[in-house]
Amino acid sequence: MGTAHLTVHWALEGKQPGSSDEYGILACSRGPFSPAHFMDIRARYSTGTPENLPQVTIGWVGGGRQDRWLLLSIRQSSAETDGTGRAIAETRYFCVPYEQVTEHHLSYEALHAALEACEPVRDEPLAVSVEAPNIEDIAARVGLEAISAAALLLTDEPVCVVGGEALPWLERLRFLDTVFSLLPYGMRTRLSASTWTSSTAGRWWTSKARNECRLSFTKHAPEGVHSVRWGALTEVSSSRHDAHRYQNLLVDRCGQPTALIEWLAAGTEPMSFSPDGRARALARLSEFTARDDAATRAISADQFTMERLLNECADFLKSRQDGKLAEHLDRLGNMVSRQGGRFFTGEQRRYQEVIAERQLLWTWQDVDDDLLFQLHAVILKVGYGPKLSARNMDEILDGVGSPGRSLLLAMLRMPSDAVVRLTLACRLDDKAELRRAFDQHSAGDLVNVAAREPYDGRLIQEIVDELARRGSAEEGLDIAGALREHNYLSDAIKALHPASIENRTRVLRRLLVAAYGQNLEPMEFAEIVGLPPGGEPLLAAAILSHGAGAGETLLQTVVLSYLGNAGLDPTTFMKVKSALLEPKLGGPAPSDDPEAYEDGSGNLNAPEGAVSRILRKLRNPMSRGRSVRVSSRHGHLEEAAGLRRQDGSGGKDWLPYVLLAILGVAVVLFFVLGYELLKSL
Amino acid sequence: MHPDPGSARPSHNIAMWGAPGSGKTTLLASLSIALMRRRGPWKIIGADDPSAEFLEEKSLTLSRGEFPQATLDMESYRWVLVGEPKAPERRRGRLFGGPPKAAPAPRVGISLLDPPGGLYGDRGSVSATDQKELLDNLVQSRGIVFLFDPIREFDNGDAFDYLYRALVQLAKQILAGDDHGDGKLPHSLAVCITKFDDRRVLQTAERDGLLTVDPDDPHGFPRVEPEDAARLFHRLCEVSRSGNADLVVNALDQYFREDRIRFFVTSSIGFYLDPERNVFDARDFQNMVPNVTGNQQGLKAGASKFRIRGRVHPINVMEPMVWLGEQFYNSQPNNGTI
Fold first, then answer.
1. Residue-averaged pLDDT of chain A
2. A203, B133: Cβ pair inside 8 Å?
3. Structural domain span for residue B204
4. Of A76, A109, A133, which residue sits at a domain end?
5. Are A79 and B301 inside 8 Å of each other by CB?
6. The model's pTM
7. How far apart are CA A421 and CA A393, in angstroms?
8. Which residues pair with B45 in a beta bridge?
9. How confident is the model over A333-362, as pLDDT tens digits?
10. Is residue A452 part of a domain?
11. A49, A622, B29, B216: which could form a disulfide with B58 (CB 3.0–4.6 Å)?
């Protein structure tokens, strides 16, 4: 509370009694406003011919930093008549320096009360003292209509209140104060309002004044004017983005109306109804919540601007205003660049909601390809930049149903990791893009991507093909290491061919060839088949108990029995059996599927074996890290490699390892079957 | 609720033009009553709620014996003139002519601007914003209702001032190009000689032998035949206080095509009728009388100095609008809704 001391400039409009002249300025104070100025002010705020008086109209004048004035005019009946006998209405105009009202957040009701009683002396400006308003009084009047009207003003279009004809003029003025109190105080530098405006006063309702907004009571809503019905909440259309958001925020926050009004009143920095001004108003309102709730972060004006631009992009898409769309995209792109692609936590979540809701990443028909790509590229930056994560990629792809080429390309051009890049390149169905993506990643990356759940059958197939190609290009060790980490992609390949064990076998065979070459060395075989630790003594005991021929027994009764139950077709099974039981003659393993050897490794005279490849890799310092890492998880391979390094011969002492591997399998099966048997008993 | 104007959106602008107090708003206010009292093919309806309500409310105001308030700011109304449907025609080329073809009622959308009369006057006392808007509207208009107030002309003699300034600006805007080869404005101009109910105007017409009575008129109101209206106009110009009224005649001839000017002798409130006799009485016909409501201290705030004594019988109020509507309607290649 307090008192503001104002210097007010004034003018009196009317007619000389008995005159046949038109209305004009009869007197005004000396100072910055001449009678011509006041005539312009009168024209600007013409509210039509009034039905009932008095009538109070509010406005603004000037606009420069040192030249901002609030206007208040009071029109009243007089007992005088003009030359044709018609009653003369008198109007008094008061211009108050904006800076003088901000400290005490003066209300229009308070201004009116002080100014109405003033009697001008000659041409002197008025010296007026005005009591600061009681905010609680204003807060007590916050209702549905006020919230609706305040929000609708953020459409930057005129708003009328209908159904309030019966209210006394002072109640209407108080309502205008209440509405304005729900906006940052600085917006009063661009607000005009009236306690009554004729529905046929064309200029008031179609004012083209830039970034100002108008509110008034009237009888009928003129065409194209937003209307608020007295006593009701008027839902703001979601297509009016800023206003809609403002209404939602107001509804959320008006639980403490006094504190809210005080907070908004403190925002005295002049604000217009331009898009930037509206974003600042939204930010100001959102900050109120942030004061009370530390967990709720205030939203910056830029964020509201970004959200509005997104919504407007969608509007332009629908209405096919390509030029405006391109301009908005440039603005969005610049905003993202200006903030260095950085976003606050949760900021992008809101953008993502808008993007999904307004279908901004959909493939819009009839939109030029370049523009569509620009749209998708910019929208992705805003909603999902700077780096596109796999989770976001999945969300986008799920959301749009069948993504178009433009979207996939735009996503592919974003910084991302292997999973995203390879998935998108594969979805694009573009060999060149896929090749480019493959070339950026190691074999290990490819295997990692193939092993990612949920499995992408088409991508797995492409990766298998690529690995097969790389195997022949001598990247086998990397492939082997990566495959081992993911159990040779067994699960992924099962997803690729769920119904055909034959196909799974063929694909796995291709991977093994890619990783190890045509012929598995014994230690490689052991590496693949593997044995779980802990069963060694039992296995040794069983072998000793069996005595000579234990190996053959193991092969016959355990391994072949196991494979026989796997569902292999008879031909494949016979080949497996043959490979298991027949003595090695020095040639490569038989190839049953030419397609599986795209790289030409079906050549009977493969130039280099797996072991020599391993040794070469071990000697290569660049690949040592990987080799050591892999070996550390598989001590026996390290040991085997070490043996090779010691003798360097590549002799035929691999047989024990093969037998050990077979025995391992047998032991596992033995335990499993034994356990099952015991359970059944 | 007002009748649905249907698809007839206002498409023809009409501007009211006249000095302050010449009766522009009162003429519009009496349109509804004129419509009800007049038998004719055309009627006028509001194209939106505010415009429809203006017709309704202002007629109530007049019926209460009150004049409308002076126009403070520009007002605009959107109305639709609806005519009688044409007689059904039989279709040719079909067996027995086929069923009669439905003939839609002709409809003319009009958007009417009612500015304060002062806007047509001295530029020094009017804001540039107002004048520009008025001029823009006149440029877009194709019809003008020009009100010539013979009483004001007799007292002040400033009709020419309120015509010429705006007319010169309008001509500059429209005739500067080559679009109008005849050098005339494209507007149709309905010149309304107002306040026919005033004793001085009636007596001038009587002295010149311009008064007639329609034998079918049960009230026996005096009237001036349409072809004599121009003569009365010239005659009234001669008694102008300033002697400049002949310039009005010259200006109209100079700027408007002769076939697009028509004169109407009008009265928005008409003559007083004794309720019992219900016939025009040449000794007691003044319908506008001083407003004495028993308040010895003077008028209460907002009250007019005059009031309407009896019922309102508008004279030639619909006719200018209908004539302009017909001008628009006939100028369209495909008559129907325009």
1. 81
2. yes
3. 12-269+314-331
4. A133
5. yes
6. 0.68
7. 10
8. B80
9. 888 888 777 777 677 888 998 999 899 999
10. yes
11. B29
